[in-house]
């Protein structure tokens, strides 16, 4: 199963430098992983135990659209 979603970067998602706040991205990744797990397991009672590594390669700015999957 491929699972993808897109997010539009809005002003409330930005850090003081005008780029995407890492916490917003982590929240979206966590939500995406939870939805995937719920669908796979057929059980809505899931929690995030561990995220090993996130490699921030480039910045996203207001108005950009990013794809998670």
Overall description:
With 69 residues, the chain is α+β, with helices and mostly antiparallel strands. The protein has one domain: Hotdog Thioesterase (Thiol Ester Dehydrase, Chain A). It is built from 1 helix and 2 strands, in the order E-H-E. It has one helix at 22-41; strands at 5-8, 65-68. Strands 1-2 form a two-stranded antiparallel sheet. It starts with a strand and ends with a strand.
Question: Which key terms come to mind for this protein?
Answer:
69 residues; alpha+beta; Thiol Ester Dehydrase, Chain A; two-stranded antiparallel sheet; 2 strands; elongated
Overview in brief:
The chain has 69 residues and is of the alpha+beta class. It contains 1 helix and 2 strands; from the N terminus they run E-H-E.
What topology does this entry show?
Blueprint: E1 5-8, H1 22-41, E2 65-68
| Total strands | 2
Quaternary structure annotation = single chain
Arithmetic mean of pLDDT: 91
Question: Strand content of the residues, in percent?
Answer: 5-15%
What's the N-to-C terminus distance?
Answer: 10 Å
Shape: elongated
Domain count, please report it. Answer: 1
Count of discrete alpha- or pi-helical segments spanning 4 or more residues: 1
Helical coverage, percent range? 25-40%
Low-pLDDT runs of 5+ residues are: none
Kindly name the structural category.
alpha+beta
H/E series: EHE
């Amino acid at each position: 199963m491929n699972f993808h979603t897109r997010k539009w970067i809005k002003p409330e998602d930005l850090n003081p430098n005008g780029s995407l706040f890492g916490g917003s991205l982590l929240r979206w990744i966590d939500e995406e992983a939870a939805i995937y797990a719920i669908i796979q397991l057929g059980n809505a009672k899931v929690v995030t135990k561990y995220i090993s590594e996130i490699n921030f390669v480039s910045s996203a700015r207001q108005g950009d659209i990013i794809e998670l999957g």
